[in-house]
């Protein structure tokens, strides 16, 4: 018999960013998969605001999600507390949740002493647009990422020169109405791009090189083009599936691989809070049938104790069989 025993982690630590914005949605996105997985103990750490208090929306979200431990601590010290424990915070088995560059680096340093979900960088969106794209929608979606912080990346790849110009005009038009205009403007200056591709094939080649956190395909037939995507954290199809929908409501997790790591990483999910133990059970006949093969491999590797662990069992079985035959012969 071969199988797996799937077990939830014993304790998870969840980092909820603060500072420039409050993220009650991130509480749900990180806590609920852990709850569904069956993690019995969950702790949240989050930095206080300038008033020394935790954002009330974050606290309400934590209560709704059923988290009883919320610690008013942020930054690298919060990661250290979760990884190694303090007098008031018990260490965890895994740390998940996004944070700034310092938090991301701290998670990388403690990896190995605890598990982590990913090294999360600044938020990013890439939009593939053809001539059917609504420029107003695309501009709004680019700005929704740019307002996160100055290092966020908002990129549009289009096959139509007129659409490129219209999106650019819409971005400038909408930018002035944003409350976080200065952050969005700086983000666009640093990392905002509109790229003109020769065709959709070239556009998707660029996407797969970027491996973006969020990919929006705003084309005439987005479902037909999904097979062209090799690397993306989350894929949003059509004009009415904006990235913001995934941030708050649709269901698939908004904690996603960034900075090109979508080439090898996946969104946060229930599976991140589960561990698997292999199960192996052989009967005596099954082991005897494989004994010589196992012994040969062990001898080839020069590990004679491995070989003997098998051969002793084979010898014992043969002795047992001989005793049984002798007993039968005496009875006759």
From TrEMBL:
Cofactor(s) in the UniProt record: Zn(2+)
Pfam families referenced in this protein's UniProt entry, alphabetically: Histidinol_dh (PF00815)
InterPro entries, sorted: Ald_DH/histidinol_DH, Histidinol_DH_CS, Hstdl_DH
Keywords: Metal-binding, Oxidoreductase, Zinc
Reactions that this protein is recorded to catalyse: L-histidinol + 2 NAD(+) + H2O = L-histidine + 2 NADH + 3 H(+)
Enzyme Commission number(s) of this protein: 1.1.1.23
Domain of life: Bacteria
Alphabetized GO MF terms: histidinol dehydrogenase activity
Function: Catalyzes the sequential NAD-dependent oxidations of L-histidinol to L-histidinaldehyde and then to L-histidine.
PANTHER family per the UniProt record, alphabetical: HISTIDINE BIOSYNTHESIS TRIFUNCTIONAL PROTEIN (PTHR21256:SF2), HISTIDINOL DEHYDROGENASE HDH (PTHR21256)
Family: Belongs to the histidinol dehydrogenase family.
Name recorded for this polypeptide: histidinol dehydrogenase
Source organism per UniProt: Tigheibacillus halophilus
């Amino acid at each position: 018999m071969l199988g797996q025993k799937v077990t939830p982690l014993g304790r998870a630590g969840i980092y909820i960013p603060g500072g420039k914005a409050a993220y009650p949605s991130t509480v749900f996105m990180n806590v609920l998969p852990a709850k569904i997985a069956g993690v019995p103990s969950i702790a949240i750490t989050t930095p206080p605001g300038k008033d020394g208090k935790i954002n009330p929306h974050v606290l309400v979200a934590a209560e709704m999600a059923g988290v009883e431990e919320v610690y008013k601590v942020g930054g690298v010290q919060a990661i250290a507390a979760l990884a190694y424990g303090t007098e008031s915070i018990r260490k965890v088995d895994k740390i998940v949740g996004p944070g700034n560059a310092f938090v991301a680096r701290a998670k990388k340093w403690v990896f190995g002493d605890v598990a982590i979900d990913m090294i999360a960088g600044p938020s990013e969106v890439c939009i593939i647009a053809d001539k059917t794209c609504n420029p107003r929608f695309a501009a709004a979606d680019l700005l929704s990422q740019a307002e996160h912080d100055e290092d966020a990346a908002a990129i549009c790849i289009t096959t139509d020169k007129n659409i490129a110009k219209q999106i650019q005009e819409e971005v400038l038009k909408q930018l002035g109405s944003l409350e976080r205009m200065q952050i969005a403007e700086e983000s666009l200056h640093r990392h905002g791009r509109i790229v003109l591709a020769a065709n959709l094939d070239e556009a998707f080649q660029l996407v797969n090189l970027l491996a973006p956190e969020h990919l929006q395909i705003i084309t005439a037939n987005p479902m037909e083009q999904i097979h062209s995507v090799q690397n993306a954290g989350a894929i949003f199809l059509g004009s009415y599936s904006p990235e913001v929908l995934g941030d708050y409501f649709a269901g698939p997790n908004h904690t996603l691989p960034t900075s090109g790591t979508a080439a090898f990483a996946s969104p946060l999910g229930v599976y991140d809070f589960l561990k698997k133990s292999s199960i192996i059970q052989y009967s005596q006949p099954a082991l005897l049938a494989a004994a010589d093969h196992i012994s040969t491999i062990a001898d080839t590797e020069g590990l004679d104790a491995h070989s003997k662990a098998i051969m002793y069992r084979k010898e014992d079985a043969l002795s047992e069989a001989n005793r049984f035959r002798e007993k039968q012969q005496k009875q006759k």
